Amino acid sequence: MDPMLYLDEHKDEIIQKVMDFVRIPSISDDAEEVARALQYALDLAKELGFEAKSVLDGMVGIIEVGDGPETLGILSHVDVVPPGNSDAWETPPFEPVLKDGRLYGRGTLDDKGAIVACLYAMKAVLQQGTPLKKKIQMILGTQEEVEWVDMDAYVKQFPLPDYGFTPDGEFPLCNIEKGMIDIELSIPKDENLGEGLFLDAIDGGIATNVVPDKCVAKLIKRTKNDEGSFKEESLELTAKGVSAHSCQ
Questions:
Q1: Domains recognised in the chain with CATH numbers
Q2: Has 144 been annotated as catalytic?
Q3: Distance between CA 176 and CA 169 in Å, rounded?
Q4: Which residues, 6+ apart, have CB-to-CB distance to 101 below 8 Å?
Q5: Which of these ranges, 19-23, 65-69, 82-86, 122-126, has the smallest mean pLDDT?
Q6: What does the alpha-carbon distance between residue 208 and residue 38 come to, in Å, rounded to a whole number?
Q7: Which of 33, 79, 111, 168 is the catalytic position?
Q8: Spatial CB neighbours of 27, under 8 Å, sequence gap ≥ 6
Q9: What tens digit of pLDDT does each residue of 36-75 get?
Q10: Which of 33, 110, 144, 145 is the catalytic position?
Q11: Is the pTM above the cut of 0.85?
């Protein structure tokens, strides 16, 4: 059967699998839900006829099919960033909704929908019956949205694929993206402040790899009266923008 025909015949099934996957709230710091999401992906792979297992105490999943002297790797992840302000969602983030040909929910794009799509694409190729010249290996991480401790451990203990790509990007192809740095700044408070407007605190964002949709700055306005004492007023300034992935 032609691969595209196979995918078209299984379209409803694929959508349902993605929706079931998205219902698992696998935020990176929730170990139990992340483990449940990884197991869902491994179970689906086995259901489709692939070899699947977890390694490194459940930090990484490996799905394989075929053999050969070289390996084609597909790198993806089952964890997601927090949904943020629930009021900003038109529908609940972990209750996926299919509307006007689009699927809405946290993780539909990054990266659960991509995992399901790749698994069914692998199945579509295999059902043609053409022997594979390379091993296909899908590597599933669990901490991609945070500090990559899973991949740090994986590359030290397992061989890397000869070729590879990740479906975690824009269609049709991204060959480069911006880097990221996570730093903390600590500035001592000056106890001898005079008159003026001073920054007391600043807050924005829900994850280090997400451009925040707003930033809140808390300010202190100090004025001096005729007697020489100071009066303080608290001010709050909110700037709103458009959230995006930090690599964009």
A1: 3-165 (3.40.630.10), 177-248 (3.30.70)
A2: yes
A3: 10
A4: none
A5: 82-86
A6: 23
A7: 79
A8: 33, 34, 79, 80, 81, 82
A9: 999 999 999 999 999 999 999 999 999 999 998 999 999 9
A10: 144
A11: no
- The residue whose two tokens read 């829900």 is 206
- The answer to whether the beta carbons of residues 34 and 152 sit under 8 Å apart is no
Contact yes or no for 198/226 (Cβ under 8 A): no
- Here the tokens at position 60 are 């990484």
Q: Which residues contact 69 (CB under 8 A, 6 or more apart)?
A: 134
Q: What angle do CA 22, 27, 33 make, to 5 degrees?
A: 75
CB atoms within 10 A of CB 145: 22
How far is the C-alpha of 207 from the C-alpha of 84, rounded, in Å?
9
